[in-house]
Amino acid sequence: MQLESSNGTIGWDGVGALRLRYDAPVEGLGRLASSLRTRLGERVVPVEALKAVELSPGPDAPLLQLVLRDQADPLLAVSGGYFDELVTPYTFPVTDRDLAERLAIDLRSKLARRDVPTTAARWLVAPPVAPDRLEGRDAILSVESGQLVFAYKRTAGRKKRANGDPWPVPLADIIDVEWMPNQRRLGIGGYLRISTARTPPEPPKPRHDPATMLTERRTDVDALFFAARLLTRIRP
Question: ∠ CA(17), CA(23), CA(29), 5° rounding?
């Protein structure tokens, strides 16, 4: 079964996998959102990754929404909602409501038979391909020999280098990864931050935090993909 949408295509094999293709231009999207959709291309989502399937009226067309289980998609987990807000990767305006209803009914039936829990025990949607090295405004991150290495640039201040330069962090010590996009209109800079057992409840500002790399606007997508891939390494 294949359902066309104004922002992509949903393919359902009828057994256990959805194939989402982000190949349609969407009017009104900003630079980052457009780049994200282009780079994502196609993703495979197993039915076990779903928590619910909703079909509701939309401003211009009915909306089919795939609601994922917690901890099913690493892109959603590292972005704190920004990825979902920017791209709405699991919401599809549809023109064929009858077909959308058939798809929703079929997916709900599969979910009911499998009785999946609310939170996934492992990642069910693969992260996009990401490099093992990422350059930011004040540091270069690289994954090597089971460690995440912060190599700081000259622009990094003394507080940033407090743990040494370079600063290797064993992947086993990392407990969380966070990505924030650059948002010029709000005056918010982008960054990639890790958390360990030593991270204080109120971490330092990104420009002073040794565990945070400030990101360039042009590499926001690369930073998101790097963060998602890192998350799957520390939580397989």
Answer: 120
Q: Among 223, 216, 189, which Cα is nearest to 78's?
A: 223
Q: Which of these, 81, 69, 86, lies nearest to 179 by C-alpha position?
A: 81
Residue written as token pair 């979910």:
111
Summarised one tens digit per residue, pLDDT across range 111-158 is 999 888 888 999 999 999 999 999 999 999 999 999 999 999 999 999
Q: Is the peptide bond before 166 cis (omega within 30 degrees of 0)?
A: yes
- The owner of tokens 């093992």 is 132
Q: Which two tokens stand for residue 1?
A: 């079964």
Q: What angle do CA 131, 136, 142 make, to 5 degrees?
A: 40
Closest-CA residue to 10 (of 106, 141, 79, 78): 106
DSSP 36: H
pTM of the predicted model, to two decimals?
Answer: 0.92
DSSP string computed for 79-148: HTTHHHHHH-TTEEEBS-HHHHHHHHHHHHHHHHHHT--SB-SS--SPPPP--SEEE-SSEEEEEETTEE
State which amino acid sits at residue 86: L
